[in-house]
Design goal:
Blueprint: H1 3-10, H2 19-42, H3 49-56, H4 60-66, H5 78-90, H6 98-110, H7 118-128, H8 131-142, H9 145-156, H10 163-178, H11 185-198
Length: 205
């Protein structure tokens, strides 16, 4: 028996999700789906909260219990995004630097091809065309800065409060937003992360 098998055999099974939790999750998903559908059809600014609640067959009070602000209706995977972000650092290939791992994560998330996922392309177009959503997305990403800084410090063998780790985390999360309007976003993101990898002197010439 492998160590993994032994761990599986001895660990207690995850408790099943209760009916109430399943219902809450289903309601939340129905609201998010209705909101995104309406936003894509008519534009973010032209859709009201009451319309979304009606489309999801819930009250506005219920909607706000799940989504405290309108922008949050578009971004329904904040916890999952943080998990993937931290995993990009912890699970990077042997020999890959932390800035390179964060660059690859940024490219895979922000630069998804329409051929790979047309729905994501529509979503990205909605966000890109809506200043309020762009600002909310950036604020949402920056909320992960402290967690990312801690993981960078762990992976680098540095103190948890090391200022270089905090700066790298902040810049890595801010870089894709800073270059979103560039004519070649992929090249712009790569260029921004070259700065994090090599320092300012390495970007000249």
């Amino acid at each position: 028996m492998t160590d993994t098998e032994a761990d599986s055999a001895t660990s207690a099974p995850s408790p099943p999700i209760g009916r109430r939790e399943r219902k809450k999750a289903a309601t939340r998903q129905a609201i998010a789906d209705a909101a995104l559908r309406l936003f894509l059809e008519r534009g973010y600014d032209d859709v009201g909260i009451r319309e979304i609640a009606d489309a999801a067959d819930v009250s506005t009070t219920t909607l706000f219990k799940h989504f405290p602000v309108k922008e949050a209706l578009v971004f329904d995977e904040d916890a999952e995004q943080e998990e993937r972000l931290l995993g990009a650092v912890r699970e990077r290939p042997a020999g890959q630097s932390i800035p390179a791992a964060l660059r690859d994560h940024a490219l895979s998330y922000r630069m998804a091809s329409a051929d790979d996922d047309p729905r994501f392309a529509s979503f990205a177009g909605l966000v890109g065309a809506t200043p309020a959503l762009r600002d909310y997305l950036q604020a949402m990403w920056l909320r992960h800065a402290d967690a990312l800084a801690r993981v960078v410090a762990e992976e680098s063998g540095l103190p948890a409060d090391d200022p270089a780790c905090a700066a790298l985390a902040h810049f890595a999360l801010a870089a894709p937003h800073a270059v979103h309007s560039h004519d070649d976003p992929r090249r712009a993101v790569t260029r921004a992360f070259d700065l994090l990898e090599n320092g300012w002197r390495g970007t000249s010439g």
